[in-house]
Specification:
There is one protein chain. The protein is mainly α. It is 78% helix and 0% strand.
């Protein structure tokens, strides 16, 4: 199984996704409870045009056996978010499910600035700015020099029309963050 797993990972890294999926499938055939092989297969599936619900099923199989698998937890959250963005009908329930999935990611890896920023960005794109602020409150102190966090906080505050807080944060960002000052998207929000 390990040779096939290594083959899956190497092929995936090289962009040969069909060969990666084949190696993972062979590893799973040899060892039906192969969590690592399924993790590789799930990573490949997530980069291809595989339906989000298929990625979720793979992730949930993995998480039933390895509840702290951060790759499965993150890819599951990304897939649930994709479904929530396209949701019709009960979109609020789909968004709540996505928020809960990202909450699990943040519980497992609150120290990851990348995952924290991705979770907050997902909350904002799902029109959940209050959840974005709550997430920022929980992870901000773990990465105090992470420049994306104040920018995301500014977007959430702006979305919530909390103008005095947004203006104060915008003023401080203009002084210390050249990217903020030069980004027309932030400038337009700030001018409002």
């Amino acid at each position: 199984q390990m040779d096939l797993l290594r083959s899956c990972e190497n092929h995936a890294r090289d962009g040969r996704f069909d060969l990666a999926a084949r190696a993972a499938t062979q590893a799973i055939a040899r060892s039906p409870n192969a969590v690592l092989a399924r993790t590789c297969l799930m990573r490949v599936a997530a980069t291809q045009s595989v339906p989000a619900d298929s990625v979720i099923r793979l992730a949930e199989w993995i998480l039933a056996r390895d509840s702290v698998n951060i790759i499965a937890t993150t890819l599951r959250a990304q897939a649930i978010t994709a479904i929530a963005r396209a949701a019709r009908g009960d979109a609020a329930a789909a968004r709540s499910r996505a928020v809960a999935a990202w909450g699990r990611v943040l519980t497992l890896r609150p120290d990851s600035a990348d995952l924290g920023a991705e979770a907050v960005e997902s909350f904002l794109t799902l029109s959940r700015p209050r959840d974005a602020l709550a997430a920022l409150d929980s992870v901000d102190h773990l990465n105090p020099s992470e420049i994306r966090y104040p920018r995301l906080r500014f977007r959430a505050l702006h979305t919530l029309a909390r103008w005095p807080e947004a203006a104060a944060l915008g003023d401080s960002l203009e002084r210390v963050d050249a990217g903020f000052a030069g980004d027309p998207n932030y400038a337009l929000r700030y001018i409002e």
